[in-house]
Amino acid sequence: MTRQEYKYIDSINSPDDLKKLDRRELVEYCRELRRYIVEQLSDNPGHLGSSLGVVELTVALHYVYDTPHDKLVWDVGHQAYAHKIITGRREQFGTNRKLGGISGFPRMEESPYDAFGGGHSSVSISAAYGIASAAKIKGEKRQAVAIIGDGALTGGLAFEGLNNAGASNTDMLVILNDNDMSIDPNVGAMKEYLLSITASRQYNKLKDKTWKFLSPVPGLRRAVQKSSAALKTWLLRRSNLFESFNFRYFGPVDGHDLTTLVRTLRQLKQIPGPKLLHVLTLKGKGYSPAEKDQSNWHAPGRFDPETGVRLSSSEGLPPRYQDIFGSTLLDLALADRRIVGVTPAMPKGCSMNIMMEKLPGRCFDVGIAEGHAVTFSAGLAAGGLVPFCNIYSSFMQRAYDNVIHDVALQKLPVVLCLDRAGIVGEDGATHQGVFDIAYFMPVPNLVISSPLDEAELRNMMYTASRSGVPFVIRYPRGRGEGVTPEEHYLEIPVGKARILREGKEVALLTLGPLGNAAARAAERAAAVGISVLHADLRFAKPLDYDLLHRVGRDFRRVVTLEDGVRIGGVGAEITRFLSENGYPARVTALAVGDGFVEHGTPQELYKLCGIDEKAVYRAIVGEGR
Questions:
Q1: Strand pairing category for 447-449 and 471-474
Q2: Across 241-295, where does the E strand assignment appear?
Q3: Could you tell me the pLDDT band of residue 298, with boundaries at 50, 70 and 90?
Q4: I need a labelling partner for 525 at 20 to 30 A (CA). Which of 50, 113, 495, 588 fits?
């Protein structure tokens, strides 16, 4: 469909406009909305499959509820594109995830329709319960709806919210969007439980017939609802999990049947107390390539909307850091039977699927449960294994206590691999991995490392597997530097930096892959007569104190560079060390400032944060200082 062929898209700028459409027009609008999302994301990449799967649900919610007075809380927010387009951001949608444009996730500051910010999973039920409780205390008549996926329901926070909200008898609705996926296919007992509900033909057939028969008689329908728990228990041969939390369970219903969704939501608005509607959807609905390959079309990059051919090509490019991790983990595991892999629902995202295919019995996908992933890994280590627990840097924030209490305090040899460390780009503030150095620096017994390139990542993983201590390895999203690893692994002395360039005037101390840009800046500085010593620190903790004593004695100017926050980072620790030891060196610490880093390309954000090659060069030559 070309841009000129849309009939309804341009006329819908708010939920009020949506409510002017009749049922037939709503169905056509859903078709256009789905095609519009495909058209836009083909050129400006984003989260495609999840948003396509909830088009009818989103339209029905805004059609039935009085938003923004009524509050819709989207879990994670991957599925919120249709919501954004309906709520007045259609003309801005081309700026989605771009620097200065709208966020790819719900943001309260962006729109009054975004009732709560999203980005990390499993928070919606707790947030909606808080919103509903606030309305109750203030005497406001408003509805609160949490929309959560079956993947996010594997997170413990979701069950904490269910437990608390159900006990309170607060008026709220939880919509369980069940598509059997998060980013990769769901795992665990919850998946099997939901399958048992949806697969009960006897129950669903009887329920559908009963509801159709009772539809004209609301009073009788409500009376039958009161006995529904007993019916479900008898037919399913088990108690309903959600009703054990005091949530009245309704469903499952077809999440692509707009008429049924509208009717059901209108009925549920009239029923007080905590309720859960189980909705079945298809991730990627309406776009064949996304339906057939749901994992890869979660966020496919640029593609041809007509043919479904993905346009990004990796031919001739260096491998991704995550793929270096995945292939190295398999290689190490084949040589050492103690090594196992653990991931919270991201086997393909972190490339642990490489090991899973070859050694499935030694890899564990634990669902979206970062805290459990860490403590489970600690248990594996206590049992004599060497677990590599791979969690995205910004998601590791959710397991901070587990790292301190269960790993570091007990000195268990868990290797914590932080993928997507540093600037991640278009996913924005909720996903930037800039806090991990600062939040792990104060934790005793942790080794914190960040390799310069692909070869160093392999050697760091080998070193960690042999260290016998809690070991953090952080590395960025995206591709490496094109460095060909050596055939044999090298064990790196823990806490020892390496000198990449000798010099006499300025000491340049860098951590991680940004050191490659710093090396180019040092080369430029040498061309104008400035002699730079460049050291790749390799470790944020322990730092190479022998090197720091040398720097303190021999240099009056020091530049540090890291892709983490300045407060509590490596530069701050180096400054403290030099000061406490009486060295007069002046330190310029290049790092992320005191503010959240928004969305944009990594290159744009490096420049914005003052940690790109140009910023390093200026710091070396002393410009603007």
A1: parallel
A2: 248-254, 274-280
A3: confident
A4: 495
The predicted model scores a pTM of 0.88
Of the residues 398, 541, 566, 618, which is catalytic?
Answer: 398
CB contact burial 95-132 (16+ within 10 A = b; e otherwise): ebbbbebbbbbbbeebbebbbbbbbbbbbbbbbbbbbb
Tokens linked to 158: 């979701």
Measured between alpha carbons, how far is 530 from 393 in angstroms, rounded to an integer? 36
The DSSP annotation for 373-389 comes to: HHHHHHHHHHTT-EEEE
Q: Please provide the distance, in angstroms rounded to a whole number, between the alpha carbons at the two ends of the chain.
A: 55
398 is an active site residue: yes
| 94's tokens | 């081309």
What does the DSSP 8-state code read for residue 406? I
**Higher pLDDT among residues 220 and 374, named by residue:** 374
Please state, in angstroms and rounded to a whole number, the distance separating the CA atoms of residues 483 and 108: 43
Give the number of other CB atoms < 10 A from CB of residue 468: 12
Q: At 97, which helix (H) or strand (E)?
A: none
Which two structure tokens, joined as six digits, stand for 624?
A: 């603007």
Catalytic residue among 35, 283, 362, 474: 283
Return d(Cα 373, Cα 370) in angstroms, integer.
Answer: 5
Quick: pLDDT tens for 24-72.
Answer: 999 999 999 999 999 999 999 899 999 999 999 999 999 999 999 999 9
Q: Any catalytic annotation for residue 370?
A: yes
Q: Residue 219 above 60 pLDDT? A: no
Residue ranges in 110-200 assigned as alpha helix (H)? 124-138, 156-168, 189-198
In tens, the pLDDT along 609-619 reads: 999 999 999 99
* Residue 230: per-residue pLDDT: 46
Nearest to 325 by CA among 437, 427, 418: 418
Provide the token pair at 561: 């560079």
Tokens 């979660």 correspond to what residue? 298
> Confidence band (pLDDT; 50, 70, 90) for 315?
confident
Q: Sorting pLDDT into bands at 50, 70 and 90, what band is 8?
A: very high
Q: How far is CA 471 from CA 149, 386, 400, 439, 512, in A?
A: 33, 11, 14, 14, 16
Alpha-carbon distances of 443 from 412, 417, 448, 476, rounded to whole Å: 14, 16, 10, 22
In the block, which residue shows the tokens 């930037």? 432
| Summary mean pLDDT of the chain | 90
Cis amide bond preceding 185, omega within 30: no
What beta strand segments (E) does 255-394 contain? 274-280, 339-343, 363-365, 386-392
Residue in 370, 426, 456, 562 annotated catalytic? 370
Q: What is the pLDDT of residues 401-448, one digit of tens each?
A: 999 999 999 999 999 999 999 999 999 999 999 999 999 999 999 999
